[in-house]
Write a structure and sequence with these properties.
Bound molecules: FE2/S2 (inorganic) cluster, fe (ii) ion
CATH superfamily of the largest domain: Naphthalene 1,2-dioxygenase Alpha Subunit, Chain A, domain 1
Strand content: 25-35%
Helix content: 25-40%
Strand order of the largest sheet: 13-19-18-17-16-15-14
CATH architecture of the largest domain: Alpha-Beta Complex
Largest sheet: 7 strands, antiparallel
Length: about 375
């Protein structure tokens, strides 16, 4: 029996466990503290990596039905994604043409969206279709539709452009290098179950790096993750994106069994990171998205931790897994990133990234080369 992607990763991880090795680089590298504090760099990253680059905002299972919608925020922009009665997917800035309030909240099924402030109503194509006391407004309804954003659905993932400058062809091409690698996870069957938002006093890149090395498991997660996971890991590059996987303890026992008996999903975590740093974590049963965005300054970020569940699966179980991971992230990882930022800002020295932190190295190289510095 040929191995699927999860099982191929499992084989590589079992080899690493048996040899007590890991995918590593040959050297460690250094990075100046200014990488995390320089306002000029920060502004360029904000524009080029986020506003000018396709952004992953969720799983398409949340808007799979005709006449459905979901809402998200990305880079401070409120967004409503709709699927109209014909099944066409659209995205709009979730801001009413009257005074800018949101026209939809949460997610669900309906044919029209009504602003909660004064009741202007829009159809799922963004057209303004109802205005209470319309005789008081010197407007043409046809001029007052919602502002559209480019959106595509690829492999069950929703990608938007935050400005009209992000072309549909750019959006469509964005995921292509990862296409065959993520197919088996059926992301289109996943629905968002819940989202936690964090305002973090650390540069966005420090937060992204939390999801890219297992060196910290033994110490930082000594009581939480470390008893369950090993720090052996494998990584791969796919165009602008990466994949990094690490297993639950004990997966080496599967080596004695034929592949036909192996689980279809890796017992562990597979983190796919889309440029510049949005992570889709696939675990044995469900998935999460960790979206890290630049905050109000180089030393602040906004993080969305979104949990998803396959349609028909037990939501309670997924929520439990989501809360377990989310609590560790909130109580252990994010405070560590904030400490790092405070220390880096104070001492302004170089940091070191070890040869055992190859994915962190790799993303540093990518962020440099993307800004051509
Ligand atoms: S702001 Fe939407 S109806 Fe007034
Ligand atoms: Fe961690």
């Amino acid at each position: 029996m040929s191995k699927n992607i999860s099982q191929q990763l499992m084989s590589r991880l079992i080899d690493h466990i048996v040899n007590d090795s890991s995918d590593e680089y040959e050297n460690s590298i250094t990075e100046p503290a200014s990488f995390f504090t320089d306002p000029e760099r920060f502004e360029k990253e904000r524009q080029q990596f986020f506003l000018d680059t396709p952004q992953l905002i969720g799983f398409s299972g949340s808007v799979s039905e005709p006449d459905s919608f979901m809402t998200v925020e990305c880079m401070g922009i409120p967004i409503v994604v709709t699927r109209n009665g014909l099944g066409e997917l659209k995205a709009f800035i979730n801001a009413c043409s009257h005074r800018g309030a949101r026209v939809a909240d949460g997610a669900g099924n309906k044919k029209t969206m009504s602003c909660g402030f004064h009741g202007w109503t829009y159809d799922l194509d963004g057209n303004l279709v109802g205005v209470p006391k319309q005789h008081c407004f010197d407007i043409e309804k046809s001029d007052c539709g919602l502002k559209a954003l480019p959106i595509v659905e690829c492999q069950g993932l929703l990608l938007v452009g935050l400005t009209q400058d992000v072309s549909m062809s750019t959006l469509q091409a964005f995921l292509a290098p990862l296409d065959t690698q993520i197919k088996e996870f059926n992301f289109s069957q996943l629905e968002n179950i819940t989202t936690r938002k964090f305002n973090v006093a650390a540069n966005w890149k420090l937060v992204v790096s939390l999801s890219h090395e297992s060196y910290h498991f033994a110490k930082l997660h000594g009581q939480s993750l470390a008893p369950m996971m090993t720090s052996h890991s494998v990584f791969d590059e796919f165009g602008r994106h990466t994949r990094w996987a690490f297993p639950l303890k004990g997966i080496e026992r599967w080596a004695e069994k034929p592949v036909s008996e192996w689980p279809a999903r890796l017992p562990g975590a597979i983190s796919h990171t889309l440029f510049p740093g949005t992570v889709i974590v696939v675990n044995a049963k469900d998935a999460q998205i960790i979206r890290v965005e630049p905050g109000a300054s180089a030393e602040q970020s906004v993080v969305y931790y979104m949990g998803a569940c396959a349609k028909g699966d037990s939501v309670e179980e997924s929520v439990q897994a989501y809360n377990f991971g989310g609590d560790i992230f909130a109580n252990e990882d994010l405070p560590a990133a904030e400490q790092c930022q405070q220390g880096l800002t104070a001492q302004q020295c170089d940091i070191v990234i070890g040869r055992n932190e190859p994915v962190v190295q790799l993303w540093h190289q990518r962020w440099h080369s993307a800004l051509k510095d």
